[in-house]
Amino acid sequence: MISRTQFGLALAAALLIATPAVFAQSAGESVYKTKCSMCHGLQGTPNPGIAKNMGTRAASDPAVKAMTQAQMIAITADGKGKMPAFKGKLTDAQIKESVDYFRYFAK
């Protein structure tokens, strides 16, 4: 039979091992949260005021869902309308990963 102390130590060790996995962010999520979420919203839905002023659409908007990954990558890299270009500010991989993260909200 396991003593309370042994059980407590085993539980604490398991939590310490599992905690980094719970809090780990994907590269796309990290870039999205720091560079994109202020306009596109944390969950891919912009604030109504920002959406109106900036012309930002939600990830679930049919026009956005109809875009290909390549189109979104091009818009993110080169900018469009009021959206700034991120080419030279982010790597190609970071742009792709942040687009993939944003596209996740449309599903």
Describe, in plain words, how this protein is organized in 3D:
This protein has 107 residues and is mainly α. The protein has one domain: Cytochrome Bc1 Complex, Chain D, domain 2 (Orthogonal Bundle). Helix content is 64%, strand content 0%. The chain is built from six helices and no strands. α2 packs across α6 and α5 packs across α6. The longest helix has 20 residues. It is globular, with a radius of gyration of 19 Å. The termini are far apart. About 6% of the residues have low confidence.
Q: Give the ordered list of helices and strands.
A: HHHHHH
Biggest beta-sheet profile: none
Query: What's the CATH architecture?
Result: Orthogonal Bundle
* Mean pLDDT figure: 85
Low confidence ranges: 18-23
Residues in helix, %:
55-70%
CATH topology: Cytochrome Bc1 Complex, Chain D, domain 2
Shape: globular
Q: Compute the number of strand runs.
A: 0
- Our Rg estimate from Cα atoms comes to 19 Å
Which secondary-structure class do the elements indicate? Answer: mainly alpha
CATH class, named Mainly Alpha
The termini sit apart by: 48 Å
| Tally of DSSP helical segments | 6
